Amino acid sequence: AAVAEAEWRIDVPAFMDCGEEGHEDWARFRELWRAAPRQPLPEDPSGDPPFPLFEPLLAQEAQRLYEKWRGKLATWNEDYPPGAADFYHSCHFGERTDYCLYGHMAALAYLARYVEPAQRHDIARSAMRLIGWTHCLDYLESSNWGFSLLALWDEVGGYMYPQVTLLHQHLQIGEGAGSGPALAGAAPAEAGEDGRRYFWIFELGIHKALSNEPVSMLESVLPDHTILHINYVKPYEGRAEAFRHPFPQNCSPNCKYQQESVPYTFPVFDDMAESARNFREFMLRTELRKPAVQKSSVFLCTNPIYYCSFFAGLNRTTIGYFGLPLMYMVPRDDWNAWVLDYVELAQSPQNLFLANNPLLAQQILWQSGQHIRVVSPVSLYVEVSYYPTRTHDVLVPEPREACVLNCLLRRFTPDGYPLRFFQKADTDRTLKTFSTFRSVVIYPHDYALMTFYEFYAMAMPLFMPSHLSKYLFPYSATVPLLDWAPAWLRAQDAEVRPSTSPLSLTSAAALRHWSKYIDFFSFPGVQLFP
Model-level pTM? Predict the structure, then answer.
């Protein structure tokens, strides 16, 4: 039987709102903050309420709190500043403190909005650092403070990293992961020798779920062929959450060897040109000598897009199915030459290049001037569908770093509530098991996730946050670190070229503009919650 909503009182935890005993130091600021006039605004598509206007008493109280609680701010490159650590311990271990993380951020946001311009940036950065490098403490909209991270975003003007380290990689060509009943080397040299018709897919790509998409499509349109899929790169098969929280109480959240602020690592290939030559020689010497392969085969490049250049000159059809930006893994010194090579590849009638989401298509257009068709994943390889036998259980797959998500779910859930929330780690991580849950709630960690498309294909009820502040992803590949375009594109007339980059969503306006290209917001049936 349905239960009336009024029977369930969902209270915001005290350490988020700071309105109960123990937080007296924040009472005056909280009262003034709530009473401050706000400029009436048209409905903001970001979901942000109007920010409080300047009031001298409120500014004075914000300044007092800033000075008193300065010791809770970041002191160096620690993952969680002292104030963030207090919040972490209050959530996971129920420790009481007179500190108020979100009240502190509100005070800093107010000062950043109204103090001297020279200080605004530093104060706003100090506030953002309080939620961790990964923003994993940002659940401001779930409190009653009435502001979000977007109130700071324009002042900060971008992501912050402790440092950026390039992960130098070298490609070794050899037999990789494949699918089908046999690898190419084990198949007959001539079609029909064993009574079967073969079709070869030779791939270079690092993301298995992305590769599954074009391979399954080709399997569906060639039902009378045996598909032999050979990937010469060991693919990435997805990842679990970065860490299982909570860390030990005596050292958390900055326990040794458990921090997620391993420097922001960006993979690059140093020997791409040499690897491409070696790969072409390998293919000409082995697979492309076989008459059957010459008659019935295709090349496939996925992530990184740069792999498509390895197939140049081999006189075969190349399908590109892309999920990450154009410059991903490309050495910085090669960017200009690579864009010119990509334009030539994209314009060749022998090649078919596709983006798996509209935002990526806009990014490629921004950096190359080339329009690319979008084919959203349909996940034909997913062989299970929604079968909700666990009618009271909701799956909440962990984002890349869910430091307090699950403990907040427990804190918000009243006793006797009819729904229970589970992590992936509470299951065997199979799609068959996932299909038995009542619904799925996704807190994304990137602008396009194969898990989203898989759940959608399974016809599972999908819930996602509506607020744009939940779509700021410091550790995505869509970051300003890869935002570059050649001079001949940058010189285009403003009427042709957008005013903001789809790779640098470093302002609230840019985020609002480009969000219309994010599938999470455009796919019908996805439920967006406030």
Answer: 0.91
